[in-house]
Amino acid sequence: MIEGILLPELDDDSRPFWDGCAAGELRVQACGECGRLRFPPRPMCPWCQSFAHNWNAVSGRGRVWSFVVPHAPLLPAYQEFAPYNVIVVELDEDPTIRMVGNLVASEYQPINSVDPYSIEIGQPVRVVFQRLGEGEEAVALPRWVRA
User: Does pTM surpass 0.85?
Assistant: First the structure.
């Protein structure tokens, strides 16, 4: 566990996403009317304005769309890991759905376990989940490994 990191707040809109992560499943909100996927989750569909929605499990596969390598982290809890990578992944199911995370060597490795010079745009990846925190505060964060 990383001491001092900010864990996500669980609210009514995002709780199904985090519940899925805890169950080892990547879920994306979909409109109950037009069926379009949307991320981040929100109460209303931006395309048809419907309030109806579902949560769909997706494959957890995608490609590196972009990445950065922070050398001087903004949060003190990440200092010991710098430099580390932060990637943006476009999902296979819908390339307009993009998620931010870290590319790691395996689900048990730290966020600096991959040489940042080896990351390439377009590289295929798949999701893994890393549990942080304890008890009611615990959360499973989606991280990415090379596919």
Answer: yes
